[in-house]
Design brief:
Elements (H helix, E strand, L loop, with lengths): L1 H17 L2 E9 L7 E7 L14 E6 L5 E9 L1 E10 L18 E3 L12 H4 L1 E3 L3 E7 L8
Parallel strand pairs: 1-8
Antiparallel strand pairs: 1-4, 2-3, 2-5, 5-6, 5-7
């Protein structure tokens, strides 16, 4: 019995050593206004995407200090992920929305997936992390102006 348990433990250790890990950098450009904070959530599945903090894989909060910023998630297993970002302009720690639930602060997603009638689906925002270092680029949506 002890040999079986020991063998299982050895197999578990080997599989942990073989798990490939990577660092994900998220570059966000075109942030406006340059105030408040960015609240990033990294999801490894569609459940709860984009807004459920209980189902996210990881999260980072950074103050907005310039119109282009780089935020890094380190040591995450290779796999499929999606990023959701709230630009919490007023810094109150939540996404402000109107009475109908429409966000009143900017939100951004990996693959520059755009919300329609609700947030984009996980599949539209997902990407595969399969390198030791990977950077994704997200362009903050600026309102189009007609001249």
């Amino acid at each position: 019995m002890i040999k079986v348990i020991l063998f299982g433990f050895v197999l578990l250790c080997i599989s942990c050593m073989n798990a490939q890990m990577g660092a994900l950098s998220v570059e966000i450009t075109g942030l406006y206004p340059v105030e408040g904070k960015l609240m990033l959530s990294l999801h490894n599945g569609p459940e709860g995407f984009p807004g459920n903090d209980e189902t996210r894989y990881s999260g980072i909060i950074k103050p907005v200090t310039q119109d282009s910023m780089m935020v890094c998630f380190g040591e995450i297993p290779f796999g499929t992920y999606a990023v959701a970002i709230i630009h919490d302009v007023n810094g109150n720690g939540e996404l402000d929305a109107n009475f109908m639930g429409v966000p009143q602060e900017p939100v951004y997603f990996s693959n520059n997936a755009r919300p329609g009638f609700g947030p984009p689906k996980y599949d539209a925002a997902s990407f595969v992390l399969d390198k030791e270092k990977m950077t994704i680029h997200i362009k903050a949506a600026q309102e189009d102006t007609e001249e």
